[in-house]
Amino acid sequence: MIKVITYGTYDLLHYGHVRLLERAKALGDYLIVGVTADSFDQARGKINVQQSLVERIEAVRATGLADEIIVEEYDGQKIDDIRRYGIDVFAIGSDWQGRFDYLNDYCRVVYLERTDGVSSTELRAQQRNTRIGLVGELNMVNKFEAESHFVNGVTISGFYAAEQSFLSDAIVNLPLKATSLDELLDASDAIYIVSHPSLHYRQAKQALLRGKHVICEAPSSLSASEWDELQALSKEHNCILMDSIKTAYSLAYSRLLLLAKSGKIGKIVSVDAVCTSLTDLAMKQGKDLSHTWNSMCQWGPTALLPVFQLLGTQYVEKSVVSHYSDEHEGFDLFTKASYIYPDAVASVKVGKGVKSEGELVISGTKGYIYVPAPWWKNAYFEIRYENPADNMRYFYQNDGEGIRYMIMSFLQSIAHNRHLTYIQPEVSRAIVGEIDYFTHSGKVRKI
Ligand code: CTP
Fold first, then answer.
1. How far is CA 178 from CA 20, 198, 312, 381, in A?
2. pLDDT band at residue 288 using 50, 70 and 90 as cut-offs
3. Residue ranges of domains in the chain, CATH in brackets
4. pLDDT per residue as tens digits for the range 209-242
5. What is the whole-number distance in angstroms between the Cα of residue 178 and the centre of ligand 1?
6. What is the pTM of this model?
7. Does 374 sit behind a cis peptide bond, omega within 30 degrees of 0 on the bond before it?
8. Could you tell me the distance, in angstroms and rounded to a whole number, from the CA of residue 317 to the centre of ligand 1?
């Protein structure tokens, strides 16, 4: 009996897949189909897959062509499978021409002509096309635009900045450089806001009132009452309103949260996060900082994320200390906030005028999680124990610093009309609450 094996994702199964399976089957007497596990696809950067593993397996089964279906979970598994199942022929589409020649050492390798004019990617893109307009500062806008190309079903409709000088160097290949937010909203189903934090509330409100979805760089407003108002508006107008904190969507960070919550380091007693960056030349040259994000707005949401996601938002006491710029009223060069919970403590240090080690340490009764600097975009972390021999090291591919996963979540939330965000609403509100306290309470201690 000649045994044939082939592999694929088989998302939204189409006739290109069926034709390939038919021809693969015809190469022998028994066909084994390997369907990729979700985590395997994610790790190799295939992030748009719409159907779950079970749905994709069911679709392959329904073709009646597979004699056996297996799951592909790790790199190098093909060699294992060929040996384990006594495979004679490995078949794959011609889009992989040459890539699997190394399997010739184990069995015959056959590349089958790929069917023209159909692919899962195209089918996914046809299912929806969301036009996202970009609002605000250039650097993040450019990153967002670049990352949107990795996500199926999104087009960038244009760009608007309240600060018109940004427009001059704006992204060259965008279809629209709008002169008003309304003009951009006309051409968009949704907007991404990364303007100065003082503008977020007004711009988000304007979009929601027009029934447009919003993803806004956190903090989405500077006061808790504005946040509540925006939430109410989003419900009233049936729109998604989502915080953008890219770290929340990075694979390493989201896995770290799960590991921490699953008791790997025992009970969590302390969370300490540091985020600093000394990139703002404007500050050094003593220029006007009215368009520059202060330390708390720039880094507070990211640093507070692990605190609130691991310890909750119900702390009993806090103290906030800031070192302010002499020249610029209200601009904190450095802020340290400490939180006391009934059974834990936390601290965040953020700075745009002070440099420190940007690490995250989560301390527990059995061990601690250590994420080296810059923790907010690091693909690597360790769980460390008293006995170093027990230490565990973790690495997760973190393409695009989490931005493309964030865009995916936003689109899926729009498509399913419910929040599929990694940032729980109570966390989002608590973050705005801290910014509100920092900005308006007058209780921040100055040093
Ligand atoms: N295939 C094919 N003809 C097509 C599409 C896919 O022969 N038009 C083959 C691929 O070469 C592969 C198998 O079907 O051997 C499974 O491919 P998969 O990656 O699941 O399908 P794609 O449509 O290529 O998916 P995507 O667009 O996500 O890359």
1. 47, 20, 41, 42
2. low
3. 3-119 (3.40.50.620), 122-245 (3.40.50.720), 251-397 (3.30.360.10)
4. 999 999 999 999 999 999 999 999 999 999 999 9
5. 39
6. 0.86
7. yes
8. 56
- Ligand 1: which residues within 6 Å by Cβ? 8-11, 16-17, 20, 92-93, 95, 114-115, 118-121
Q: Each residue of 61-93: pLDDT tens digit? A: 999 999 999 999 999 999 999 999 999 999 999
The closest-lying atom of ligand 1 relative to the alpha carbon of residue 96 is 11
Contacts for 243 with CB less than 8 Å, ≥ 6 apart? 215, 216, 218, 220, 301, 421, 423, 428, 431
Q: Choose among 206, 171, 175, 179: nearest CA to 191.
A: 206
Ligand 1 atom closest to the Cα of residue 8 is: 16
Quote the CA–CA distance of 275 and 291 in Å, as a whole number: 20
Contact by Cβ (8 Å): 298, 139:
no
